[in-house]
Amino acid sequence: MSKTNLLLDAHLLRIACTTPTADSPIGVFDSGVGGLSVYRHLRQQLPYERYLYYADTKHVPYGSRTAEDINHLTLTGIDWLIAQGCKLVVVACNSASAHALNQARLRYLTIPIVGLVPALKPALAYVQAKNAQLTQASANLSNHLSSHVAVLATMATLHGQLLNDVMAQFATPYGIRVSRWYEPALVPWVERGMPPTDATAERLRKMLMQFAKQGVQAIVLGCTHYPFFKEFLLNQMVVQGHDMALFDSGDAVARRVKQLLAEQGLLIAQKNIPQKNTLAVSNHFGNRHSKPNPHQLQFFATAMTQGLSELVIKLCGEEVMVDAIDG
């Protein structure tokens, strides 16, 4: 057995003997900065919690990787978060949830692991309700209405079992058309700060025009990076004169996290917020250090790419400590 495996086994043994408390942080995992869209919902619903964010920027994006690769990278990140004493981990990455969520839950039976599924189910419900209203208003429309939802996601998510299960249960039986749409440049575009003059922005404009011609009524943003260009899409729909609803799963995930913590008595109360919020952090090789944590979010990246700190602060809308870790 290698030295790294021995050290990882030591981490897991320590974790098994550690019981999280209400003061323990919530872990958030993603391949890059996209999971910050989920963090913003968590912060809104759970404002007194502390958060540890693991960004695997060394290997971003995950969407085009093999299932085996995604599984390994995801479990490595979750191992690290739980080694820091996290009381719950959010897999804020659709690709990782599609391929590693079940393995993560089996690996940590006593720690809640919350994953993501593209918000297709509420989008389908919206389309059904909208068409029912239109049909009721004008019987002549009943034979001309078509239900159509587009899902924007990575290849890993689009072909994952989680999404296909939702389609089979809630779309196909009701004759609702679901289109899959993949654009490999979207995640890197967000990681670069979403420059509006970029070729990717132009492809998004053309995508909206194509969706309008196809009668798309709702768009599912099936990657945690995508809500960051939600405002861009809304502005373009105004310019182009289209009316399509946008859905993402951030709010639902935050509500689920709050529910799980409440059920286990692990919600932090405002009166219990530590005065000196210091967190001990370790890397994969057992070295530990402590840093003061004046903010509720600590962001750790496996690669300190150019402009990362500025991008994280921009997307969060708050001051954030950004540190490098081994990954």
From TrEMBL:
Query: What Enzyme Commission number does this protein have?
Result: 5.1.1.3
Q: What is the uppermost EC class here?
A: isomerase
| GO MF, one example | glutamate racemase activity
Is GTP-binding one of the keywords? no
- Single Gene Ontology BP term? regulation of cell shape
Please list the residues that make up the active site: 93, 223
Entry's InterPro entries? Asp/Glu/hydantoin_racemase, Asp/Glu_race, Asp/Glu_racemase_AS_1, Glu_race
State the UniProt keywords alphabetically.
Cell shape, Cell wall biogenesis/degradation, Isomerase, Peptidoglycan synthesis
Which Gene3D superfamilies has this protein been placed in?
Answer: 3.40.50.1860
Catalytically driven reaction(s): L-glutamate = D-glutamate
Question: In which residues is substrate bound?
Answer: 30-31, 62-63, 94-95, 224-225
Keyword Nucleotide-binding assigned: no
Q: Which residues form a coiled coil?
A: none
Task: Please state the pathway this protein functions in, per its UniProt record.
Answer: Cell wall biogenesis; peptidoglycan biosynthesis
Q: What does this protein do?
A: Provides the (R)-glutamate required for cell wall biosynthesis.
Give the family per the record: Belongs to the aspartate/glutamate racemases family.
Name it: Glutamate racemase
Biological source species: Lwoffella lincolnii
- In the UniProt record, what gene is named as encoding this protein? murI
